Amino acid sequence: MVELALNIMSGLLGLTVSASFIALILKVHRHYQWPAREGELHHTHKVSIPRFGGIALAAAFVSVVLFFSAMWGQSFLQEAEYWTVVTGSLAMFGLGLWDDFRSLGAKRKLAWQLLIASTVYFLGIGIHTFQIPFLHQDIDLGFWSWPVTVLWLVAMTNLINLIDGIDGLAGGICLMLMLLLTYVGNGTVSVLFIAAGMVGALLGFLWFNFPPARIYMGDGGAYFLGFLIGSLTIVNSQKGTIFAALIAPLFVLALPILDTALAMLRRGSQGLPLFRADRGHIHHRLLETGLSRRKIVLGLYGFTAFFLLLGFMAFWGRGQHLTLLLGISVLVVLLAAGKFTFSREWFAIGRLLGNSLEARSEIQYAICQSRWLALEGARSQTLEILCEDVVFITRKLGYARIWIRLEDGDKVWQLADINKEDCYCSQHKLPGHRYCFLELSAPRSLPGEPQATASHTTNEATLKITGDLLAEGLAKAIFAWKKQHPTAGAVQCPTD
To answer: HEC string of 304-365?
Structure first.
């Protein structure tokens, strides 16, 4: 009874601190209007939304930690692994927050993640034994304990970040994970109270993040939650049934794992950076079907809640019924996938890989051109010169028409005679005013062919990717140009 009361107290403290900090962040944002991060084009909102919800989550976490440290005194202070989890999670939060203010690049972020995870391992948080599924035989990992632990922590960190692409989704999944950890951590006081406190903190965050969102958790919040969940599961595995404590959260993470696996396969086959943000995730594809954000998030909540139940069952059964649970999981995924047309692509892996491999050279070329354009932003004396560079690249990538709308004007370049009704057209958001965009058009059919064939459909997919890359390069170039010309005011399209 006392434990339940303390759990409720921890949750209420997390809820109060989280909601209070978010209200403060929103108030400050209304006065200062923090700009979007450089080159961030994959979000679909047309209004400025702060991405510092992670600050509120970290503040709630620290409040819960300090409160129970003061309440339990020496017994809490002497738990080395407890403070390792705290410092490691806050270090990962700091890395994500740094990236929220200034993009660090995938390689630099991964290097820091590996360093933080390795430090946590050498301070005592590690997966030292592993149970072979179905055989129920434990093996000592020995030296491999280090890379396995680091892989687990870094994977959990990035799973949450990759799924954070639509209002309320990552927060809701993390809430379910924290509920599971509150139950699973019943024998570990530190895990129990931290997880209960984060349940309250996430409820406070979701009040502001549920569609339509007023705040994002940002990389700071996603990295913090992912790393915290990963480290708490390891602590549970050290104190209880190793296999069950590690496998139960994986059921709840069924959606992020599936989405990430598909994203890695898609990007790798196309020659794109594996950690590049895009609009090919499951929730983005659901948005394209016309469903509202609320319906999508609620549907994905239901999907995750079912797997949460499977996670509880895996823990209750100590992994003994894993074969049955995995079979149910696969069946549910197949049934859910069959409801949507776009998911049929998943079952045509050979064709998709073949098409993607054919497009790799064109996409690699577009990546090089996009990077060159981003560098030209700092070198261009005028915006007219920068726009000429955009037109030069656009022509090389096979587009016939380009339309740029910036803060104070439009400019259209007609590069070839095309029939507008027989054109593939894509529009890409640009930084600045909510209505700034880059629109690209290309003919659907090759000259002399009356209509597009299946191969040209693939070509349209390639054009969409190259268009995204060009828009990213232009966005970064505009940021660089503004930095070199701070007194230029609104970015205007050149006039003839």
So the answer is: HHHHHHHHHHHHHCCCCCHHHHHHHHHHHHHHHHCCCHHHHHHHCHHHHHHHHHHHHHHHHH
Nearest Cα to Cα of residue 466 among 492, 438, 496, 493: 438
Alpha-carbon distance of 141 to 385, in angstroms, equals: 59
In angstroms, the CA 121 to CA 144 distance is 12
pLDDT tens-digit map of 410-425: 888 887 777 767 788 8
Count of C-beta atoms within a 10 Å radius of residue 341: 9
Assess contact for 11 and 199: CB atoms under 8 A.
yes
pLDDT digits (tens, 9 = 90+) for 164-191: 878 889 999 999 999 988 887 656 667 7
pLDDT of 77 reads 57
Token pair listed for 95: 């890395």
Predicted TM-score (pTM) of the model is 0.81
Euclidean distance between CA atoms 92 and 223, whole angstroms: 6
Q: 21 is written with which tokens? A: 């900090």
End-to-end CA distance of the chain: 77
Q: From CA 170, how far away is CA 274, in angstroms rounded?
A: 20
Residue type for position 470: L
- CA triplet 182, 185, 190: central angle to 5 degrees? 95
Contacts of 79 (CB under 8 A, 6+ apart): 190
Residues in the chain: 496
Contact between residue 58 and residue 224 where contact means Cβ atoms under 8 Å apart: yes
For the chain, how long is the longest CA-to-CA vector?
82
What is the strand order of the sheet 423-429 is part of? 409-414, 401-406, 437-443, 423-429
Among residues 111, 48, 125, 143, which one has the least CA distance to residue 83? 125
Q: How far apart are CA 171 and CA 475, in angstroms?
A: 29
Q: In angstroms, rounded to a whole number, what is the distance separating the alpha carbons of residues 15 and 13?
A: 5
What CA–CA distance (Å, rounded) separates 453 from 477? 36
